[in-house]
């Protein structure tokens, strides 16, 4: 597995446009101190910290990857949010939460990683009737005419899903899609910038562990491939749905 903790060392959000998606959650859900939110795949806990810190709402934040669980736990402690945010190490496919117990549920950048249909099913299951389910993810603007070769990195292995197909998957889970927001290109650039800084640092022989040109080349190569992917095929999209 790639060393995600190192690759993402200089960023709190691990998804293009995550801050914009959190803004959409704030506007559509309008949480207050009586609201309980479920976050699937919380990463470093930045969205949960932001929402609990701004609105004093409760958040159940679910994340299975140990390094991110530790970072998120430290963040909630540091910002004195432990009364509001419950961090649970669990798989998004089986949320340890009762059905219809959450006012809203969201998953930023990860339903397709968790598994699109099981993730959507779980988000819908835990949300109260009438509550919002908000997800963001990669959607393919155009599908390649032929299968992609290895020069396309992770995209060669991916099953392309268009925004229309994604919307249909959400609606098949019993939710009504109210809004579809395609993120601007700058959200991708903002997402790559800190990774490229990590790569530049790794190249420098003065960094603490000495130069790591192999790691730096890998990160820069992956960003380059993804940038070509965005030019040709990929969008980032936030879907707002209601149960
Ligand atoms: C692209 S990151 C997004 C993290 C966070 N939502 C953000 O935007 O900063 C994907 C996250 O999904 C988590 N993840 C992977 N498989 C998962 C699963 N089966 N259930 C829950 N989370 C999972 C990873 O550990 C990682 O934190």
Descriptive overview:
This protein starts with a helix and ends with a strand. The chain has one domain (4-140, 159-184, 235-242): Vaccinia Virus protein VP39 (Rossmann fold, 3-Layer(aba) Sandwich), CATH 3.40.50. Helix content is 42%, strand content 21%. The protein is globular, with a radius of gyration of 18 Å. The protein has helices at residues 4-7, 18-29, 46-55, 66-78, 111-114, 116-126, 163-172, 185-203, 213-232; strands at residues 36-40, 58-62, 85-88, 102-108, 127-140, 176-182, 234-242. The model has no long low-confidence stretch (mean pLDDT 95). The protein is built from nine helices and seven strands; from the N terminus they run ααβαβαββααβαβααβ. The structure holds S-adenosylmethionine.
Features:
9 helices, 243 residues, Rossmann fold, alpha/beta, binds S-adenosylmethionine
């Amino acid at each position: 597995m790639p060393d995600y903790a190192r690759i993402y060392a200089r960023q709190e959000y691990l998804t293009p446009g995550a801050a914009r998606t959190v803004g959409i959650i704030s506007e559509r859900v309008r949480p207050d101190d009586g609201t309980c939110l479920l976050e699937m795949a919380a990463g470093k806990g930045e969205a949960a910290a932001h929402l609990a810190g701004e609105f004093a709402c409760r958040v159940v934040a679910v994340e299975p990857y140990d390094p991110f669980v530790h970072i998120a736990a430290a963040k909630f402690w540091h910002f004195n949010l432990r009364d509001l945010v419950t961090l649970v190490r669990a798989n998004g496919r089986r949320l340890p939460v009762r059905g219809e117990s959450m006012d809203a549920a969201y998953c930023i950048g990860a339903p397709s990683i968790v598994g699109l249909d099981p993730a959507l099913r779980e988000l819908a299951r835990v949300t109260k009737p009438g509550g919002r389910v908000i997800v963001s993810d990669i959607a393919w603007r155009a599908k390649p005419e032929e299968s992609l070769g290895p020069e396309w990195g992770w995209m060669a292995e991916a099953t392309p899903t268009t925004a229309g197909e994604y919307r249909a998957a959400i609606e098949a889970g019993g939710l009504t899609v109210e809004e579809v927001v395609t993120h601007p290109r700058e959200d991708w650039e903002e997402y790559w910038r800190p990774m490229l800084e990590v790569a530049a640092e790794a190249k420098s022989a003065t960094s603490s562990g000495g130069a790591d040109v192999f790691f730096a080349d890998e990160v820069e190569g992956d960003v380059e491939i993804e940038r070509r992917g965005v030019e040709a095929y990929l969008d980032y999209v936030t879907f707002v749905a209601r149960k």
